[in-house]
Each structure stands twice: as structure tokens, then as C-alpha cells.
Design brief:
The complex is a heterodimer of chains A (333) and B (557).
Chain A (H helix, E strand, L loop, with lengths): L1 E5 L3 H13 L4 E6 L11 H5 L5 H4 L4 H7 L1 E5 L3 E5 L4 E4 L4 E3 L2 E4 L3 E4 L11 E2 L4 H10 L5 E5 L3 H12 L3 E5 L13 H12 L3 E3 L4 E7 L2 E6 L4 E4 L1 E4 L2 E4 L15 E2 L11 E3 L4 E5 L4 E3 L4 H15 L21 H5 L2
Parallel strand pairs in A: 1-2, 1-7, 2-3, 7-19, 9-16, 10-11, 10-16, 11-12, 18-20
Antiparallel strand pairs in A: 4-5, 5-6, 8-17, 13-14, 14-15, 20-21
Helix pairs in contact in A: 1-8
Chain B lengths: L2 E3 L5 E3 L2 H10 L1 H5 L6 H9 L3 H11 L3 H7 L3 H5 L13 H12 L13 E5 L3 H12 L3 E5 L8 H4 L8 H12 L4 E3 L7 H10 L2 E4 L5 E2 L12 E3 H9 L9 E5 L3 H12 L4 E6 L10 H9 L3 E4 L1 E9 L2 E12 L5 E3 L5 E4 L2 E4 L3 E2 L2 H4 L10 E2 L1 H5 L4 H20 L1 E13 L37 H10 L5 E5 L9 H5 L5 E9 L5 E5 L8 E4 L9 H5 L5 E14 L1
Parallel strand pairs in B: 3-4, 3-6, 4-5, 6-18, 8-16, 9-10, 9-16, 10-11
Antiparallel strand pairs in B: 1-2, 2-19, 7-17, 12-13, 13-14, 13-15, 19-24, 20-24, 21-22, 21-23
Classes of the chains: A alpha/beta (333), B alpha/beta (557).
């Protein structure tokens, strides 16, 4: 049996090794867009702050991948899925056939239509490449603007603060708030950040960006002007599923899956940040962003692809265990 | 088959193969319900001739300024520039607007009256198109309109921030100037009135559109705060809607529902949610409209079914929904125990419109000698589809009153020397439309799209592949030197061992595997970027370029 996995993040790589360990007869190919070996995305801020070296960043090296018998094609991306013929098309038009397919392309930081016209001036903070570029330019950055309410914004705030940069943080909400349910920290985070000397602008959002020689000027909805060296902004996170426009693979915001992580097409599975699943407690469709969930789903999808029947248990409560570590220790010490 | 050749090399053909060539090779034109000569006007724009561009539009679709703003753009999803690996489709619609913005011109026609009279009921897009076509043919046309101003949906159903009033007036005037009489505030309500009109005029066209909302059967529809999409839009457009709104839910996934959310935003609503049975992919509006909604901060609730309207003291307090699951073949099922409520003080149902049934009852108007047109005939559709049907209806009237045998498509094939296109144009990125800043979006009459500048229009027009030019190699004269293949910009010229022609006129070359098999050198019009490199390189001048255009002519008995 030939299995193709699109995406070499934690969901895709976990699924690949699970499949190979469950049934070594199965031929597994992983296609990863980024030109790197699989890395720990949650360590990127430490990496930026020089708190760890390159080798700690990667969780699998070439020998280990070889030993697992995974065919790993990095630096290649998929542009179309053809469920009828069980084929995918790569960006350079190569066509690959599969018996079973796993879509594990994750998510990305997404700019809404207002900021999108300025995307060339706005930096994202998500991939190793983003961080490497940022690291190279750190010396020329004195001040940065950060906008958004995701956990990755908090991560970035901490990183830039630890590097001694001046920060202006903009939020749409009436106080600084990150999705940290059931955490005491969430309640006093506004004060906490303020006490660190970070400028906070509430109830506002950037709407226009101008380039001024080597600086940028951000204009907000309430007509504030902020001059800065670098802008990090994103409105929300979005699954990376643009390549999968096959009508038969149902999507909402993400790819819709059942509790076995199978999509609406038999033999096509999806796992991690790119999936959306109905949650009976929330009474809503739901994307469970984050590393631990992606790892868990990768393992379950891998087992199911290898012929087992494992159900993904939707957890009764939503808890953001931040990448497996207590929040305070991780970022602010 | 009839081929009429003129001295200057122009051929007029009724050959079905030539007609088929247009359908296959000019995807934008064949996707357009009214078959607008799209490459024709885009070429005129890239030559800087906006007046000609406008007139090409005015001839094919009679409402260019309007459609250049609000058309649902079936052409753009067909555009070859958007095919796999070729980038984004050309901004055809915005270019139509540019043609009208910079080239608007009085549309003059010498009309010879034929003494016959036609009455058209309804002054929407289908009525106006029919009026235009009949007036040009010499008919004395009278339009009856139930409201105080003409335009139908264009005037009342589409918000002004997408289609300003003076733009509607501009296109309307251009039609009325042909000698069409407009009578407003006249409502035809029953069959007797229609009958009377039918005896007074030589022909009557019923083009009353779809003004009645489709109803939904859920509890609480009688509560204060529940309204129907078109009623809301008309009320907002005429400043007669005075219900205060804060939290608004719009139910639906089509054009009107999108317009309702954006209008609610301009009328001061704070939280606006669009709820739709299916997902974003199944919404019947263009992606650009969804993006405009997102920019204005409108929320979405997909895969939900409204099951009840919640109320307190007769006032709406929210809508209870159930979540849907999508099964095989897009079948929806409601997920058990998935009820949830979105709070709202206003609920707008925009789930479609239908014709006013009491006018039709069980009568088949067509059998009573009354013509029908547009949405009244076909059910709710789009502006351009209504225009196309108005044209069809006018043709039917003319056929019957003038005693014609019918109509016939004529393909004009005209030799040309140069296309003016170069490979570099393929790399011009899609020009984005400028929009007014979000801070000005609370003004409900202020148009959001500000239009392309002349410079931008020119740049965008250059992107068009000009698919109406046909490149052909005369095999009898070809010496197989391959000079054309040496200079081809993309993989557009092929060595073939055979060409298969199917019954319906599709021509598919079969690629030769080796020199020994080569029977012909063919140009693949699907790949050709109309640059003319091959024509310039050919030593024996065996490659020709011809321009294909389409006209419909009357066939006498």
C-alpha cells in the first residue's frame, strides 16, 4: 500500500512514523513545503533568543528518518488533489498516486482583507525561515509593532522583550487577553505586560502601513500613527488548505473530518491544525490549534491508515496547556 | 454552410465549426450569458481607445456602467489567464467599468420607425435590454414601472455603495434616448390588465422580475425585527427602514444576503452574522464580495439551519440554530442536540425571491400571446442573465411581428497582421481595485470600489491573452523548418501525427513521438499567448492570424 502524507509538521511526521512502526510493509512518502528537517516549532522563540543551538531544534535527523523507512521530500509543495483518480499534483506538475492520503498541512497566520494589501511590509512569525530572517536583522531593530490576539503573539512579545526591543502591542479587545482558559495568568496578563514597559493600544487595529526609507509607519483605525522598524501582524489563523479545492473533500474553515479523522472521501484522512471537527460539548465545529493536539491526531490518523480503528476523543474541556510547558516558566524567566 | 468572402479577405461564415471555435477558444465570451465581445473591448482599452471599448460593450450588453460594477463575473472564472499555472484571471469586470468611466459616449443610432408598438412591464435589466433591442429595430416601446423610479432590482435591490444611483441613471438615459417611453407608478396587478394592454399594443412583454420573497416555515416570523431581504434593501435604499439595529442575523448565502449584511453595517449595526446552510465554498457570490464582507467585520456561521426565532414581548431576541453535517452528495443532516442561539434584535431572511404568483396563477402567459422575460420567466438569477433573457425575448417579439424565419449566428473572420502582445505582458500581476478606507464605509451611499485609474486599466488590459485571435499554420506551405518552434515563448506549437475532429467540431492534435510520424505542425490555441513570434519567424509566411467575432442576424422567410 502506498501512503502519501502532505505536510511534514508534527502531525504528518508522527503519522508517518506511526504507520511505519505499525506496518513496515506500507510505503510512506512525506511531502514537506519547508526546506528543513522536522523541527520543534514551539522552540522557535528560544532559538531566536539564542537559548538553544541548532541540534536541539530538530526532533528527527536524516538517519532516524532513513531508519524509519520514510521517504521524505522536503522543499516541495502540492498544488492539487484529485480524489477520483487518487492522485496529487506537485507544484512542478509531477503527479503522484496514492492508496491512502493524509492531509496534515497545518495552519498559518492570516491577514484579513484590510491588511492584506500591505502584506509585503508585514512579517509573519511562524516558520523557521521567518525566525532565521528575523535573527539576521535583529541588530537593525529597535522598536516593533505587534498586533493580534493569538498565543503566537504572546510568544513573540516575550521573545522581543527578552531581546531588549521596544514594543508597541495593539489589540482589538478592551484589554490584553490571550486564549488561556483556566489559567490564573490570563487574568492579570494585561497588568503584567504593562509592568514590563510594553506600550499597549487597546480597542484599535492597524489599517494602513506606509514605508518610509528604512522605517514603517502604521496607521490605526483610530488614527494613531506609530513609526517602527518592523511590523508583526495577523488577524487570525487559517488552515493551509488552498491547494485542496476538490469539491468532494468537504471543508468549512478547515477540512471536515469524522472521529476517525477520515474526510468525506474514503481513504483520505486529515490531521492537525488543518482539520475541523464537530465538538458535541461546544455544539460547534472546531479547530484545535496546537502542538499536542496535532501530535495526538497524527498518531490516531497513522493507526487508522495502517488499518486499525481508533477514535479521536474530543476532550470534554478546552485546556491550553501551552506546548507542554507551564506558561510563566517558559517565557518570562 | 455558407462562406461569403469579401475583397479585403474578410470571411463571413455560418459554418458550425467556426461557431464552435469561438465557444472553445474564447472562454470568457462563451461564459457570458449575453456573449459580450470581451477580448474586443479589452484590446481597445490596451490601445487606449476607451470610446470604442465602451461602444463594443454598449452594443452587446446594454448596461455597461452598471455591469462593470456589479456583474457576478462568470467570464472571470472561465478566463484562460486563471488556468492552472497561468496566474489570476483578468479583471474583466473592472475593465468594463473603466471603459464606461473613461469612454462613456452617447449611443447614437439612426432608427427607422416601423409603426409597431410594444409594451414592456418592468424596467429592470431584462425589460431595459428588451426595450433597447426593440427600439433599435424601429418599434415604439413603452415601459411600465410600478415604482417611482426605473431600474427594478438595479435601483432598489442593489445597495448604492455598490451601484450608485447616477450610474443607473446614466445607463437608463442611454436607453430612453432611443425613443423609449417610460411610465412610472403604474402597477399591473392582474390578468385583465394584461389582456387590455395586449389588445392595445402589438406585443406585451411581462418582465416583472422576482419581487416576492421565498418564505420559510419556522416559528416567530411575525415578531418585530423579522424582515425579508428585499424589503430591507428597498427600505434602506429609499431611507424608509427605521428599525434600530444592533445585533443582526442575515439568513442566506446569495447576493442579497451579502448585500444585507453590508447594508446593516452601514446602518449602524454592531454585530452582524451571516448564517448559511452550507459552507463558504457553496455561497453563490464571488470571492471578492466575501472579502469585502470580511473587511467590514461581518461574522459567518456556516453549516447551520435556523429552527426557531426567539422573542420576548413580541420583539426578536435571537435565532435558534441547529448545526448541519454534510453527507454524501452534499446532503445536509441536522446534528442531534446541537441547538444554539445567536442573540439578535433583527433577523433578515434573504433566501431567494420568486415571481409574484398571483399574476401568473395557473395561466401560461405565453399561450395567451403575452411574452415573458428575465427573472419573471426563469426565476431569480443574475443581472447579466436577465439581460440575456431580455434580448431573447425581444428577438421572439421581433420574429413574430416581422414574420421572420429566425436568427442565425455569423462568424466574421478577419485577417490581421499584429496583435500587439508580447511575452512580458504575461508577468504583469493582477491589478487590485482601490477601495475607500474602512473609516468611510459607514456612509451607505458612498461607493466602495473607486475604479481603476487609466494607467491601471492599461496595465490590466495588457494581461488579456486576446483569445479571439486565431493563429493557424497553412500545412500546404509549411516547410517544417521549425523556426516557429525555436521562437515560441511557451509550449504552444506542436508536431502532430494526426488531428482528430469530432462531430461537434473539437479539434485535438495527436502528438507525434518522432520525426517520421510528423504530419503537421499545429498551434495549440489553449497555450498560445498571441505574441506573434512565430509569424515573424516563419520564412515562408505560412502562419496567419485572424480575428473571430460573432454577430446574430435575422433570417427572412
Amino acid at each position: 500500500m502506498k501512503v502519501i502524507i502532505i505536510g511534514a509538521g508534527i502531525a504528518g511526521m508522527t503519522a508517518a512514523s506511526t504507520i511505519r512502526k505499525t506496518d513496515p510493509q506500507i510505503d510512506v512518502t512525506v511531502i514537506g513545503k519547508e526546506p528543513y528537517l522536522p523541527y520543534n516549532r514551539y522552540l522557535l522563540t528560544e532559538y531566536l533568543c539564542d537559548q538553544l543551538d541548532d541540534s536541539q531544534l530538530y526532533y528527527l535527523n536524516l538517519e532516524e528518518i532513513k531508519e524509519l523507512g520514510i521517504k521524505f521530500r522536503k522543499g516541495e509543495s502540492v498544488k492539487a488533489v484529485d480524489p477520483e483518480n487518487k492522485q496529487i499534483k506537485l507544484f512542478h506538475n509531477e503527479v503522484l498516486s496514492f492508496d491512502k492520503l493524509l492531509i496534515a498541512t497545518g495552519g498559518r497566520q492570516h491577514l484579513g482583507p484590510l491588511l492584506n494589501p500591505f502584506s509585503q511590509f508585514i512579517k509573519s512569525y511562524y516558520t523557521l525561515q521567518d525566525i532565521q530572517l528575523l535573527k539576521r536583522n535583529l541588530n537593525s531593530i529597535e522598536h516593533c509593532v505587534i498586533y493580534g490576539e493569538n498565543l503566537s503573539n504572546l510568544d513573540l512579545l516575550a521573545g522581543m522583550y527578552n531581546l531588549g526591543k521596544k514594543i508597541t502591542y495593539i489589540t482589538r479587545r478592551d484589554q490584553v487577553l490571550f486564549p488561556l482558559l483556566q489559567s490564573e495568568f490570563a487574568d492579570y496578563i494585561h497588568e503584567f505586560i504593562q509592568n514590563k514597559g510594553i506600550e499597549i493600544i487597546i480597542n484599535d487595529k492597524p489599517v494602513y502601513v506606509e514605508k518610509k526609507t528604512d522605517k514603517y509607519r502604521v496607521l490605526t483605525l483610530k488614527n494613531k500613527k506609530i513609526d517602527t522598524d518592523i511590523i508583526f501582524a495577523w488577524d487570525d489563523r487559517k488552515p493551509n488548505i488552498d491547494f485542496c479545492q476538490a469539491d468532494k473533500v468537504y471543508q468549512k474553515k478547515g477540512i471536515l473530518v469524522d472521529t476517525h479523522l477520515q474526510t468525506s472521501v474514503k481513504d483520505i484522512y486529515a490531521a492537525g491544525d488543518c482539520t475541523e471537527i464537530y465538538h458535541p460539548v461546544l455544539k460547534n465545529y472546531w479547530i484545535n490549534f496546537g502542538w499536542p493536539n496535532a501530535q495526538e491526531q497524527g498518531e490516531i490518523a497513522g493507526k487508522n491508515i495502517a488499518g486499525h480503528k481508533v477514535e479521536y476523543q474530543i476532550h470534554e474541556t478546552l485546556s491550553f496547556k501551552l506546548m507542554g510547558k507551564p506558561l510563566k516558566a517558559r517565557w518570562w524567566e | 454552410m455558407a462562406l461569403l468572402s469579401h475583397g479585403d479577405g474578410i470571411i463571413k461564415s455560418t459554418d458550425l465549426l467556426d461557431r464552435k471555435w469561438i465557444d472553445v477558444n474564447i472562454p470568457c465570451k462563451s461564459a457570458c450569458p449575453i456573449m459580450t465581445d470581451i477580448p474586443g473591448y479589452i484590446k481597445a482599452i490596451s490601445d487606449g481607445d476607451y470610446k470604442t471599448a465602451y461602444l463594443i460593450n454598449r452594443k452587446d450588453n446594454v448596461l455597461p456602467s452598471i455591469l462593470g460594477r456589479i456583474c457576478h463575473r462568470p467570464c472571470e472564472s472561465a478566463c484562460r489567464h486563471g488556468w492552472d499555472g497561468l496566474g489570476d484571471p483578468v479583471a474583466i469586470c473592472f475593465l468594463k467599468r473603466s471603459a464606461a468611466d473613461f469612454g462613456f459616449k452617447e449611443f447614437k443610432k439612426s432608427i427607422k420607425p416601423n409603426g409597431k408598438t410594444v409594451c414592456i412591464i418592468g424596467s429592470g435589466p431584462s425589460g431595459l435590454t428588451a426595450a433597447n433591442d426593440l427600439a433599435i429595430r424601429g418599434y415604439k416601446v413603452t415601459i411600465l414601472e410600478q415604482y417611482s423610479e426605473a431600474g427594478g432590482m438595479l435601483r432598489y435591490g442593489i445597495p448604492r455603495f455598490r451601484l450608485p444611483n447616477d450610474i443607473v441613471n446614466q445607463d437608463l438615459k442611454s436607453i430612453l434616448d432611443l425613443g423609449v417611453t417610460l411610465k412610472t407608478n403604474i402597477r399591473i396587478e392582474n390578468y385583465d390588465q394584461l389582456e387590455k394592454l395586449n389588445s392595445k399594443y402589438d406585443a406585451v412583454i411581462m418582465a416583472g422580475g422576482c419581487m416576492a420573497p421565498k418564505r420559510l416555515d419556522i416559528s416567530g416570523l411575525d415578531k418585530t425585527g423579522v424582515t425579508w431581504g428585499l424589503d430591507f434593501m428597498m427600505g434602506a435604499n429609499t431611507n424608509t427602514f427605521d428599525h434600530k439595529m444592533k445585533n443582526v442575523i442575515v439568513v442566506g448565502g446569495g447576493f442579497t444576503s451579502v448585500d444585507c449584511t453590508r447594508m446593516a453595517y452601514r446602518m449602524g449595526a454592531k454585530n452582524i452574522t451571516l448564517s448559511f446552510l452550507f459552507t463558504r465554498n457553496e455561497m453563490t457570490v464571488g470571492e471578492h464580495e466575501i472579502e469585502d464582507m470580511e473587511a467590514e467585520g461581518i461574522d459567518f456561521a456556516f453549516l447551520v439551519t435556523p429552527v426557531a426565532i426567539e422573542s420576548e414581548n413580541g420583539q426578536v431576541t435571537g435565532v435558534k440554530f441547529k448545526r448541519n453535517a454534510k453527507g454524501a452528495n452534499n446532503q445536509l443532516t441536522q446534528i442531534p442536540d446541537s441547538d444554539f442561539v445567536i442573540p439578535a434584535d433583527t433577523v433578515i431572511f434573504a433566501i431567494g425571491q420568486e415571481e409574484e404568483k398571483h399574476l401568473v396563477k395557473d395561466l401560461q402567459l405565453e399561450t395567451k400571446g403575452i411574452y415573458t422575460a428575465g427573472d419573471f420567466r426563469n426565476g431569480a438569477s443574475t443581472v447579466i442573465q436577465a439581460c440575456a433573457d431580455g434580448r431573447k425575448s425581444a428577438q421572439e417579439v421581433h420574429k413574430d411581428l416581422a414574420g421572420l424565419d429566425g436568427y442565425e449566428d455569423i462568424v466574421t473572420i478577419e485577417p490581421i497582421n499584429e496583435t500587439g502582445r508580447i511575452r512580458e505582458y504575461d508577468f504583469i500581476p493582477l491589478q487590485p481595485m482601490d477601495k475607500i478606507p474602512i473609516s468611510e464605509r459607514s456612509i451607505k451611499e458612498k461607493e466602495v470600489d473607486t475604479g481603476f485609474s487609466e494607467e491601471k486599466s492599461l496595465k490590466e488590459a495588457k494581461r488579456c491573452y486576446l483569445c479571439h485571435y486565431n493563429f493557424q499554420i497553412d500545412i500546404d506551405r509549411c516547410i517544417y523548418c521549425l523556426a516557429c518552434i525555436d521562437v515560441m515563448p511557451v509550449d504552444c506549437i506542436k508536431m502532430a501525427k494526426d488531428i482528430i475532429v469530432t462531430d461537434d467540431g473539437n479539434m485535438t492534435p495527436v502528438k507525434a513521438e518522432n520525426w517520421g510520424q510528423v504530419q503537421a505542425i499545429v498551434i495549440d490555441n489553449d497555450k498560445c499567448i498571441r505574441c506573434g513570434n512565430c509569424v515573424r519567424a516563419c520564412p515562408v509566411d505560412c502562419i496567419s492570424i485572424s480575428k473571430y467575432s460573432l454577430t446574430t442576424v435575422e433570417k427572412e422567410k
